[in-house]
Structure formats: structure tokens, C-alpha cells
Amino acid sequence: MEAGDIVAMKEWSKNSLLGIEDLSSDEILFLLDEAETIKAQKTTDGSIIESLRGKRIINLFMEPSTRTRVAFEIAAKSLGADVISIAGEASSLTKGETLKDTAMNVQALGADAIVLRHSSPGSPLFLSQIVNVPIINAGDGAHEHPSQALLDIYTMREKLGNLKGKRITILGDIRFSRVARSNLWGLLKLGAVVTLAGPSTLVPKEFEKLGARVTHDPNEALRGADAVMLLRIQHERQQASHFPSLSEYANVFGLGRSTFDQMKKNAIILHPGPLNRGVEIESELADSNRAVILQQVSNGIAVRMAILQLCINCGENQR
Amino acid sequence: MKEKALCNFDLVGGRVVDPYSGMDRVKDLFVRDGIIYSSIPEGKPAEQTFNIKDHIILPGLLDLRVHNRVPGDAQSENIQSLTKAAAKGGFSSILAMPNTTPHSDNPGTIRYIQDRIKQASKIKVHLTGCLTIGSKGIALAPLGSLKEAGVVAVTDCPHSVGDNQIFTNALKYAKMFGLKIIEYPQDPSLSKDGQAHESPLSLKMGLTGNPRMAEELSVQRAITVSRHLEVPIHISSLTSLESVNLVKEAKRLGVKISTDVSAHHLLLTEEAISEYKTQAKTTPPLREEIDRLALIEGLNDGTIDSCNSSHEPFAEHLKQVEFDLAPGGVIGLETTLMTVIEALGDNDPFPKIAEKMSTNPHKILGLDPPSLKAGNLADFVVIDPVKKWIYNTESGMSLSKNSPLDGHKFIGKPILTVSGGKIAWCEDSSLLD
């Protein structure tokens, strides 16, 4: 743990992880420390932790996902749990079954936890009110993506140390991004200064009322920053007239060497993936040693192991 | 429907509040064969006497925005449950919106609904027809035939015509038949994806916003079109501060527009949805405290003419889904009167209630407002102004339970609703069939 991070918390007390917004800074640090312990164990002796042996985890992914789903599967298996993944297009939901009924059936099948990815904001909260098994939010619409934010923050802390006072810029499509929101809450709670940047159509000024700095000038956003997180730009947004074209976006907001050089000397580049080379970032920069994109992915395993272990074991104690 | 048509009764000791007829005093009313008398008519004994000391009698209330589900979705609401809910809430008349399935855009559907009303309703139900076919905003509905079938107004509520040419043509055409036009002000290109009021809260919740601008542009359009075509327009369900200002200024200039507000917008703000509560997902969306206060002020200073329930019933399973998949709309017939009383926060809100919920809505539709003067058909509501009670949707008359006010403590309750000379609702259920 970095100096300055004082965790008063002794025990984890949440059986679900619905978002970062309802976590305290202590809870965030507790989770990150747990992930650090797991990562150290895995790298030093190579042994598998069996803390969830015999537990059944259902990955309910109602929206396409590769990275997050696979990371949750590996995390669960590394803890000895059985994992069953259900994809939206292969489930009864395509036959008109509601999420409520699907979830009750999954509970009746003996799930010890449900990892939910869904396009509707608030759906994990909705599910947690229906079933009494731990719910892990793996991304709900534009609302939250807590495991992603935790792995981002874990990686930033690993590279930059204590995040208090650090200047973090999130650049791209903020309006429709759950990753931006979860990171914003987590980083603010840990005392970082967060700047949100990108086209005015995708970065509403109202975020200032939620504690962020907002700018539409990428140079201003990046000057002196310790880290930049780039968010994927989606073609659909272009069609909805949020910006004129991908090449215009790359030209005005893409991260190139000259803008990157305005950041602090040891600044890092994060991206939750999937990456659009040549749009959000110059290809060369994405492969440089300042980019920690693949380390984010690896850290995602330890962070998700920590989430599953803490929430499921806590849920067990509470039941 | 068989009914025990009790229409011979005495009301003793109540305060008659009827500003339209210039009456506000304690006065006994005697109803014989559905007609009001000021003294007991000879040879006609009452079947029932209600001692209503300290109670209020208001002329019949009319709700200008109620969503009927027949035909199409009788599990959410049928005519009997709808009109019983209205009567229990103190309304002797309602105006039904045309978003039935199929839409009320043809005389056949109108006649079917009229037939169902005849069989199952104890109150007056006025009908609207669609302004455009299927309320899609593309082709004009047969307004002349709809008028002939009996509609009193035309509207695409809860939608608005996006194309300005179609909108102005529809209004010109409707004017020819003297049909009242009701505009539900939402610019569809700005509001179509909106799940909640556009604000820091909806931004935080990851919900697509419905901006105030969507309503204000539409309000401004109605004002401009009304002025140019000299056609009166009723703008339904205002929600934003700036809309109130636009209407105020337009009225000052003499533009022939009228407006109303949904009762729950006077009491609640967007905070009601903060935990993704689909029961508080309304159309239009609940907004912020500054809007709520502006609406109350608009009601008090005469900018807003009336209050509606925007009663939109949805069967329980339709609302028990993810927030963005849940339909917008809440029920309100059984709470609107008390909600308005509470929101006005006045020591004596009743003269204003009579104006906003009886006189004005009737005038807006071009109907004669009910009067409590002798010789008129009995059409009124008796309110116990101090009765404290808790609203519980489970004991309501509506088949649907989607109210954000479930569990709310109210003061004041309608105990007797008389519509068209007959008792439609009485707290003493032995007097009903």
C-alpha cells in the first residue's frame, strides 16, 4: 500500500457490487489491496486460490462482451468456482422472457452469484431487488462499469502511487460511457483531480456539477496531466450527429505525440479497449512503453478475483 | 350495467363553493330526480340524508388528460375500473386520450368506446380523436368524421406532430369543425430517446435525457401557430419553468392558448426516480425544484388554467422491467385532487380548486361548467377537508398500481361524487350497487 492510504476498514460488508458511486474510499482501497494480495500470491508461488471451490457463478451477458466476460470467467475459475456463461442472444430473453424471470430461474438453478452485463442502466439494482444472490455489475448501459474502473484505478495506483492530487484526464465519448462515470466516482473519492475532455456534444458541461473539470480543448486537458484515459469512439455517434467524422475526430481529439508530450514526464496512457488505432490514439503511441493498456487487462483478473471473493463470501456470511 | 340510481337525497350543513355561480356559503342542497333544489320540494321525500357539516361541496370536476386502455389493454384498465377510479378521486367527468389500440383515429373505434362507456361508466367520459392517423404525425385523421362520431377535441397526446407543415394544416382543418386542439408539447426529435429529465441526475444515472428545450420549442410553436391561424390551442401537461414564462407572455399578448399541469408535477421532482423507480417514470418527465415551484406559481397567477391527472395505467408486469424498457406514465385519478390541495398549500384552496378543476376545464372544451344553483343537474363532489388517510394502490379502484404516491399521507378526501344527477361514488359503499 502507498503511503497516505489509510484503510480503517477491517472487513468487507457488501455482497453485491452495483457501482463505484456507492462505495466509500475505504471500500475502494480495501478492494484494491485485496487484489494486490491476490496478484502477489499468483505471481510468487503460482498456486491457485480455492476460496470459491464449489460455488456456481453465472455470467449473464445480455450485451456482447469479450474482454470483460473472459476476465470474469478466468477470475472465477482461478478461485475454484464453476462458471456458466449465458449470452443474451442464446437465452430465453430472445423468446420474450423478462430479465426478472430469467434472473429468478437462474437463482432457482442454484447460482451463488450473478455477473450481469446489460444495456439498461440500473438493471443490476433492479436484479438485486428480485433475487437474493450477490450481483456483480459487469456494465449497465451508460451507468457504471465498476470492475473496469477498479482495474483502471489499480493500474494507475501501481504506476503513479497514491492518487491524491494526481491529475487524470479522461478523453473521448464521456456522455455514453459507463467507464468514464465509474472512473470519475472512484478517482474523485481517492482525491484525484479529474478532467473530462472531448467534443462538446459528447462531454456535457453538467459533469462539472458532479465534481469533474470539463474542457473541450485537448491541449488544456492534457497539459501537466499524470494519466490520460482514452475512450473508444463509436461510429453510431457519428450517425447521430455528435461529431462529423472519424477523421475529424482523430484530427481534433486523437492523442498524438505532440499532445502527449505536454503531459508529465512519466505520464501513462490507459484505454479500456477495444482500441481504434488511428482514431483515439496514434498507433505507435499505443505500442509505446507509456501505454499500460495490456497491463490493465492483466490486472483485471486479480481485481475481479478480489471482487468475486469478497462479495460471494460476504453474501454467504450474511445468509 | 345495472345500477341503483340513487338520485333523491339531501346534503345538510355543507359549504357550497361555486365561484362560477357566485356562491360560497353554508347551504343545504336537495337533490330530486337528479336535479338540485334549494328547498325541500313538496311530496318528494329524500331516500338518504347526508349530514356534511364542515364538508366542502364543489361543482363537478373534469380531468382533461386520462389515458383509456379500451380497446387494446383491458388488463391495465377497463372502462369500469377507470371510471370508478375517477369517481373515487372526485371527478364527475374525464377526457379520454386517443392512444388506444387501435388508435382512436376512426369513427368505428370511437363508437366502440362509446358503447363500452354506456355499459360500464357512472361518470361522463368525453372522447378525443387523433389529430393524425395512428398519432404518427404523417397523415391527417378524418377529423370531420371523428367530430360527427362525437369527439370533443383532437390531439396526438402523448405524442406531438414533428412536422410543422402537417401540424399547421391539421390545425387549419380542425378549426373548420370547431374541434378543440390539445397539444402535448414535446419536440419528438429532441425527446424521442429521453428516459428522464436531462440533468446532472440523469447524466449520473446514465439515462438519456429529455431536455426542457424539447417542451419549450413545442410550446413556442403552439403559441406562434395559434397567433397566426387565430385558432385556440390547449397546451397539455407543462413541466418547465421557461414554458410557464412563454405562456405567461403569450397570454399577456392575448394569444388564445390555455394550459394545464399534471398534479404529480406539483408535488414531485426528478429525485423520485433516483433509484430507477419505474413507478415514478412519468410522461413528460418529472423535472427539478425550480420547475415545480414555477408550476405552482403559474397555477396561482392564472398562467396555468387547469390540473390533470395524466392517468396512464400500466399492468404491474409492464412496469417491473428495466427502467429504460418501462413505459412512461403513472396513474393519478385517485390522488390528483388531494395532490393539488397539498401543492397549493393554501388555508382555503377550494375556490381555486373549483376554478382550476371544474370551471376552467369545462370552458376549455367549450362545455357549460356545472353549477350548484337550484335547477341544475346535480354534478358535484363532497370533500371531507380534514380527513387524514394513506393512499394505498392495493385498495384503489384502478386495475394498475403504477403510482409514485403509493404510501403517501394525504389530508382531505372526496366522500361523495355525483355525476349527471347520479351518485357515482360514495365512501359509504352500501349506497352503491
What is the strand and helix layout of this fold?
The complex is a heterodimer of chains A (319) and B (433).
Chain A: H1 25-45, E1 56-61, H2 67-78, E2 82-87, H3 99-108, E3 113-118, H4 123-128, E4 135-140, H5 146-160, E5 167-171, H6 178-189, E6 193-197, E7 213-215, H7 218-222, E8 227-230, H8 235-239, H9 246-253, H10 257-260, E9 268-270, H11 283-286, H12 293-318
Parallel strand pairs in A: 1-2, 1-3, 3-4, 5-6, 5-8, 6-7, 8-9
Helix pairs in contact in A: 1-5, 1-12, 2-12, 5-6, 5-12
Chain B: E1 9-12, E2 15-18, E3 23-26, E4 29-32, E5 35-37, E6 48-51, E7 56-59, E8 61-67, H1 79-88, E9 91-97, H2 107-120, E10 124-129, H3 143-149, E11 153-155, H4 164-176, E12 180-183, H5 188-191, E13 196-197, H6 200-205, E14 209-210, H7 212-229, E15 233-235, H8 241-252, E16 257-262, H9 264-267, H10 289-301, E17 306-308, H11 316-319, H12 336-344, H13 350-364, E18 380-390, E19 409-419, E20 422-426
Parallel strand pairs in B: 1-6, 2-7, 8-9, 9-10, 10-11, 11-12, 12-15, 13-14, 15-16, 16-17
Antiparallel strand pairs in B: 1-4, 2-3, 4-5, 7-18, 18-19, 19-20
Helix pairs in contact in B: 2-3, 7-8, 8-10
What attributes does this structure have?
heterodimer, A: 319 residues, Rossmann fold, 2 domains, 4-stranded parallel β-sheet, globular, B: 433 residues, alpha/beta, Urease, subunit C, domain 1, TIM Barrel, 8-stranded parallel β-sheet, 6-stranded mixed β-sheet, 13 helices
Structure description:
The complex is a heterodimer of chains A (319) and B (433). With 319 residues, chain A is an alpha/beta fold. Chain A has two domains: 25-144 and 301-318, Aspartate/ornithine carbamoyltransferase (Rossmann fold); 146-296, Rossmann fold (3-Layer(aba) Sandwich), CATH 3.40.50. Chain A has twelve helices and nine strands. In chain A, the strands form two sheets. In chain A, strands 7-6-5-8-9 form a five-stranded parallel sheet. In chain A, strands 2-1-3-4 form a four-stranded parallel sheet. In chain A, strand 3 (113-118), helix 4 (123-128) and strand 4 (135-140) form a beta-alpha-beta unit. Chain A starts with 24 loop residues before the first helix and ends with a helix. With 433 residues, chain B is of the alpha/beta class. Chain B is built from 13 helices and 20 strands. In chain B, the strands form four sheets. Chain B has an eight-stranded parallel sheet with strand order 8-9-10-11-12-15-16-17. In chain B, strand 19 (409-419) and strand 20 form a beta hairpin. Chain B is globular. Chain B starts with 8 loop residues before the first strand and ends in a 7-residue tail after the last strand. The relative contact order of chain B is 0.17.
